[in-house]
Each structure stands twice: as structure tokens, then as C-alpha cells.
Amino acid sequence: MGNSILVGNAPCSWGSLEFEGLAGEAIGYAQMLDELVASGYTGTELGDWGFMPTDTEQLHAVLAERKLTMTGAFVPVALRDPDAHDEGLERVLTVARQLAAVASSEYPPFLVLADENGSDPVRTKQAGRIGPELGLKPEEWRVFADGANRIAQAVREQTGLRTVFHHHCAGYVETPAEIDTLLSMTDPETLGLVFDTGHFLYGSGQNDPAVVLEALDRHADRIWYVHFKDCHPQIAEQARREEWDYFTAVGHGVFCELGKGCVDFAAVTNWLREHNYRGFITVEQDVLPGMGAPRLSAERNRAFLRTLGL
Q1: What is the C-alpha to C-alpha distance for residues 39 and 57, in angstroms, rounded to an integer?
Q2: How far apart are CA 190 and CA 161, in angstroms?
Q3: So what's the pLDDT on residue 227?
Q4: Which residues, in sequence order, are CB contacts of 65 under 8 Å at separation 6+?
Q5: How far apart are the C-alpha atoms of 225 and 139, rounded to whole Å?
Q6: Distances from the Cα of 179 to the Cαs of 72, 126, 172, 215, in angstroms?
């Protein structure tokens, strides 16, 4: 039986992170992709704009010579701020056109839309323990959701690609309730969800793997793409107890290697198979200076997924 679930990785696993001050020891895209392939992955996300070639023909050649599928690209937009929407839309469309130009017909990439995570000091400080009082007000939700809808619609109309929203710690869509709200206010035909197991678990404020499966059931129709990320329960507890901010928690390894935290990946994988998930899941392993060698981490994560039949 052929496996309809394919496994990719992303530049963030090699230290190319989207946050100022969280960048790892930078290596070039060619080395990163060579190591990704050598570790057993067949897909990659784009990473920050400019990390990989912005020339379409060059990027196509880079992927083709390694037999890699482009799976998506993460683009943050400050959706709470209506004045940021126009500029954000232009950045999104620049990336989406690049994705479309190198897209696989069988497994087209996703535009991964996100909030401008880590930009609000209160949300960044309280990540992993967000209460309702820190959430958006109704009028802010309307602005946020309208912006997400507009961007996703433009991506579809201008490039034919689908947009998924990435719930993310230290952003305004972190908690299960906030994910519910965003999905209830956006068009289910236009905007899907990239379900990130680690961000969901840490953002839930719990270490209970059952909450991940409950969320998969709740949002089954909106989950178009999946990120595999683990969450270390002891580090998460310490982060909450000692009130670490998001970046401190990441630096201490709250998002650990797959199989070393409390996400039940066997159950998640079974859920995906039962729901006929077809396409890529993307491994994300935030590797910062001092946290080990990215390639070795990528190899261990790939070996773990093989134990699940992936």
C-alpha cells in the first residue's frame, strides 16, 4: 500500500527562524537542502523571503536537482492592524507567485499565513498561559478575520493556491478558543488551517495529548496542512511556573525533538490516515545556537517518523 502521507521539513529546522534575535547559526540554502534530502525528507518550505533564490528559474532548478517538492511558505502579517493589510497583502502575493511558479501539480504548496507573532510584548511574555482577558476585542476580531479572508481570496484568485492560517504562540491566535473564533469568522472555502501539534499543545496551557486529538476532530474540515512539532512537558511547566516569555521558552527547548515530548504522534498519524489526509506533513524543529546540530536533529526526527510508518 502506497503511503499518501509524505514528509517534509523547513528552513527553521536549520536555524533560519522568522524572528529577530532567534536566528540560528546561518548556513546557506544549498547546504540546508542537501542535508534535508540526506536526512530522508522529500519536501521543503520556502523559509524567509530571500533565504532561497528569489529568481524563479533558479529556485525551480534547485528543487528539481534534489527531487524536492515545495510545500509552502510562512508569511506573517499584522492582521490586527488594518493599516498593515495592504502592505501585508503585497508581501503575501510576492511569495505566493513564487510558490505557484515552482508548484507541484500533485502536491501544490500552501501559502501559510500567520499573525505577526512575537511583536506584541504582552502576548510574547504570556505565551503558553494566555487567558481570555488578553484576547482581541470583537471589533479587532472583525478586522483580523476580514484581513485573513481578503488575503486568502486574493492568493486563490491570483495564483490558484490555497491559504492556511498558522495558529502560533506569541500571536493573537494561540489558544484553542482563539483558533475556534478565527475559523468561525472566516470563509471555510477560502481559508484553511495548518494544524501545528506543538504550538497547539503549548498554546492550550496544558500538557494533555488528548486536547490535540479533540482539536483535530473539531476542525477536521478546515485542516488542509499539518506541522509536526513536539512540546516538552517539563520545560513547558517550568516556563509557565517561572513566567518565561516565548523566546526564553523556545531557547530552553520547549519544542523538543519528535517523540521526546507529550504529543502523541502515533495517535495523530492514525487520525490523519483515518481522515484520508493526503500530502505533506512538515517537521519543524527550532534549532538555535547551542541546541545541537540541525542535521542530526533532522535525522533523529525522520527516524522517529519511520517508526510510525511515515
Answers
A1: 25
A2: 10
A3: 98
A4: none
A5: 29
A6: 20, 17, 9, 10
Classify residue 74 as exposed, middle or buried by CB count within 10 Å of its CB (0-12, 13-18, 19+).
buried
| Identity of the residue numbered 259 | G
152 grid coordinates: 486568502
**Residue 15, Cα to own-chain centre: how many angstroms?**
15
> What is the distance between the alpha carbons of residues 291 and 215, in angstroms, rounded to a whole number?
30
Which neighbouring-strand residues pair with 133? none
Count CB neighbours of 37 within 10 A.
16
Q: Which residues contact 304 (CB under 8 A, 6 or more apart)?
A: 257, 258, 259, 265
The model's pTM is: 0.95
Residue 170 contacts residue 118 (beta carbons within 8 Å): yes
DSSP assignment string, 214-275? HHHHHTGGGEEEEEE----HHHHHHHHHTT--HHHHHHTTSS--TTSSS--HHHHHHHHHHT
Q: Hunting for cell 481578503 — which residue is that?
A: 150
Residue 84 gets which letter from DSSP?
G
Q: Coil, strand or helix: which one is 97?
A: helix
Q: E strands, 14-130, where?
A: 43-45, 69-77, 110-115
CATH number for position 293:
3.20.20.150
197-245 residue pLDDT tens: 999 999 999 999 999 999 999 999 999 999 999 999 999 999 999 999 9
Query: CA torsion angle for 186, 192, 197, 203 (degrees, to 10)?
Result: -20
Q: Average pLDDT in the 157-177 region?
A: 98
Calculate the average pLDDT of the chain: 94
3 state SS of 76: strand
Question: For the chain, how many structural domains are there in total?
Answer: 1
